[in-house]
Each structure stands twice: as C-alpha cells, then as structure tokens.
Design a protein that fits this description.
Structural class: mainly alpha
Bound molecules: flavin-adenine dinucleotide
Number of helices: 6
Number of domains: 2
Distance between the termini: 35 Å
Order of helices and strands: EEHHHEHHEHEE
CATH class of the largest domain: Mainly Alpha
Strand order of the largest sheet: 1-2
CATH superfamily of the largest domain: Fumarate reductase/succinate dehydrogenase flavoprotein-like, C-terminal domain
CATH architecture of the largest domain: Up-down Bundle
Largest sheet: 2 strands, parallel
Helix content: 40-55%
CATH topology of the largest domain: Methane Monooxygenase Hydroxylase, Chain G, domain 1
Number of strands: 6
Strand content: 5-15%
Length: 243
C-alpha cells in the first residue's frame, strides 16, 4: 500500500498479472550441461525437466540452489580441466563480442522505444498465447512477433551510460524475450494436443501416442527449428490431470 500510495480502507488496491515462472527453458541434464559443450544452465533459465509440463509453486529453490550449485561446480571443473591453452583467449573473445553487441545497441539511432516493443510483446502473448490457444491465434502471434523483432533492429536507448544502465539491461532482456516468444509459439503451434498449461481449443484431448515427448527449439536466424526428445518415465505412469 505504501508503494501504490493507496489507502485500502477508501480505495481499491490496484492489481495486475505478473509472470510467475517460466516452464521450459534451456535444455540441460541434471548436471546443468547443455547441447553446447562448456555452456551450463541453472535456475529459471534452465529446463532440467524436474517439473513436468507444469510447475506448481515452491520449486524454484530446487532449480536455483540445488541445480545452481551442481551446474556452477561443473562449470568450474570444465574450465579448470578442459580449456587449457586454447581457452586463454576464450574469455576475452567472448567479452569483446558482448562489448560489440552492447556498443551496437547503445549507438543504434532508430526511432523505436524498447518499452513500447515490450508492451506490444506482452499484449500478443497475453491475448494469443495464453493457456487457451488455437492455430489461428498462434499463427497471428508468430507474424506479430516477426514484426516486433524487426522493430527491435531500430531501437534507440534514452540513456547509454555504461554504469547501472537499466535501459540497456531491459533492451538486452527484450531481445531474449522476443526470441523465446517465437520458440514458445512455434512449439505451441506444432503441438496439436492439450497437456498441462498448453490447452489447444482446436485439439482439446491429450494425445500420449504422438505427443508424450519434449519439444526442443533451436535458434536459427530464419526462425525456431523444432526437434523432440523422449520423456523418461519414472515409477509413476503419466496420466491426464482431471481436476
Ligand atoms: C511474482 C513471483 C512470485 C514467485 N514466487 C515464488 C515462490 O513462492 N516460490 C518459489 O520457489 N519461486 C517463486 N518465484 C520464482 C523465483 O522467484 C524465480 O524462479 C527465481 O528467482 C529465478 O532465479 P534466477 O537466478 O534463476 O533468475 P533471475 O532472478 O530471473 O535472474 C536472471 C538475471 O539475468 C539477467 N538477464 C536476462 N537477460 C540477460 C542478458 N541478455 N544479459 C545479461 N543479463 C541478463 C536478468 O536481468 C536477471 O538479473 C516467483 C516469481 C515471481 C515473479
């Protein structure tokens, strides 16, 4: 109430939806290893696949603390053991690439405000890629994301300082959000069934015969390339949720 500046005795409390957790993420195993050798993922960014097709509250600690510690120590072990001489310039090369990317964003003199693109992205994802989705909405959404990705190429930051620059941080995040959004929509469009938080109103039934598999999306400059990998079945048979 302090932040919103309202007195709940007299005023309504403003509320707005927020994203609670990203299901899926960078595909990795329980060691935090990804398809890219030497690149580890943990936390909300990762998909260790301990949550299935849904993640009910409370398990971020598992992702961040348990798998974070495992991925972190594996990354250290990898650097100490494998990189040797050939890795001497790896860090400076990576830093220079990151620097060039940041410089390009800071020098970009377009007319697009990153925050406007983010609002538009939120709107597309809220309106067309919610829990209930269908093919026509998803196709429209993917076309709209392409437009936003194009607009992103013409952004201009209102502040380009290198210290604690939130505009820059949000612009970097926005690029990731646009690419992830595209992968989410491509996966949702291909998956012609309903399961977990993915409910296709045009395919309302769960279809284990065809779709009991993980979607893996690869980034390509032309768009997301989809692949699939099997689900490891534990002691419990997967079954439809009926509540
Ligand atoms: C409203 C809300 C309630 C929640 N409640 C719970 C709960 O009750 N229990 C629970 O277990 N979990 C809860 N969670 C989830 C939990 O907070 C997160 O899963 C967890 O904080 C993720 O930590 P992380 O370090 O993996 O990622 P983050 O904390 O998201 O850190 C990622 C960092 O990467 C930075 N970044 C992104 N892109 C780039 C880039 N391109 N370059 C450089 N940096 C970049 C970001 O700025 C950010 O600082 C909740 C989340 C929300 C939003």
């Amino acid at each position: 109430m302090e932040f919103a500046g309202v007195d709940p005795v007299a005023d309504l409390i403003p509320i707005q939806p927020g994203q609670h957790y990203t299901m899926g993420g960078i595909d990795c195993n329980t060691e935090g290893e990804t398809a890219v050798k030497g690149f580890y993922a943990a936390g909300e960014a990762a998909c260790v696949s301990v949550h299935g097709a849904n993640r009910l509250g409370g398990n971020s600690l598992l992702d961040t603390i348990v798998f974070g510690a495992i991925a972190g120590s594996n990354a250290v072990r990898y650097i100490q053991g494998e990189s040797g001489k050939k890795g001497e310039t790896a860090l400076s090369d990576a830093l220079s690439r990151a620097g060039q990317r940041i410089d390009a964003i800071c020098k970009s003199d377009g007319n697009e405000v990153p925050a406007d693109i983010k609002v538009a992205l939120n709107k597309v994802m809220d309106n067309k890629v919610g829990i209930f989705r269908d093919a026509s909405q998803l196709k429209e959404a993917i076309a709209e994301i392409k437009v936003l990705q194009d607009r992103y190429k013409r952004i201009k930051l209102n502040y380009t300082g290198k210290r604690a620059n939130l505009s820059l941080e949000w612009a970097l995040e926005l690029k990731g959000s646009l690419d992830v959004a595209e992968a989410v929509i491509a996966g949702a469009l291909a998956r012609e069934e309903s399961r977990g938080s993915h409910f296709r109103t045009d395919f309302p039934k769960r279809d284990d015969a065809v779709w009991l598999k993980h979607t893996v999306a690869y980034f390509t400059p032309e768009g997301s390339r989809l692949d699939y990998k099997p689900v490891h079945i534990g002691p419990f048979e997967p079954k439809e949720r009926r509540y």
